[in-house]
């Protein structure tokens, strides 16, 4: 399937439809086989002990996988997470951004399954792995985005 939204289009979509995350998450790369998104880590993402909190890591994975799916189906704002599983494997350092490397495992008409590995910027070992399923709403006649 072709790429319908590149990094610039996805970042513009986030800015217009999801401004609550657009300030901290951005799409850096969209390719046929993967998408890379960045969480710009700041003090609001930290938890006691000087590490990035689990909710921030989960949010990065969720937004990145959502964008990976939209890169293939277009700007369908109402595609929603229906299942998620995350494994936290290592403590991420507080002073580094996090990168989510996503790939779509299955893209159907009504469901998409994807995974993300979360890495510290410049790090080789993932700090988390996430698998998600998204429900894709049916297109309405005459309207590609619902």
Description:
The chain starts with 6 loop residues before the first helix and ends in an 11-residue tail after the last strand. By secondary structure, it is α+β, with helices and mostly antiparallel strands. 24% of the residues lie in helices and 36% in strands. The protein contains three helices and eight strands, in the order H-H-E-E-E-E-H-E-E-E-E. Residues 49-124 form the Thioesterase domain. InterPro entries: ACOT13, HotDog_dom_sf, PAAI_dom, Thioestr_dom. It is an enzyme of class 3 (hydrolase).
SSE topology sketch:
Layout: H1 7-17, H2 19-22, E1 25-30, E2 35-39, E3 46-47, E4 51-52, H3 54-73, E5 80-88, E6 98-107, E7 111-120, E8 128-135
Antiparallel strand pairs: 1-2, 2-6, 3-4, 5-8, 6-7, 7-8
Short summary:
The chain has 146 residues and is an alpha+beta fold. Helix content is 24%, strand content 36%. It has a single domain (7-135), classed as Thiol Ester Dehydrase, Chain A.
Strand percentage: 35-45%
Count of separate structural domains: 1
Helix content: 10-25%
Number of helices: 3
Q: CATH fold name, please?
A: Thiol Ester Dehydrase, Chain A
Name the features.
146 residues; alpha+beta; Thiol Ester Dehydrase, Chain A; six-stranded antiparallel sheet; two-stranded antiparallel ribbon; 3 helices; 8 strands
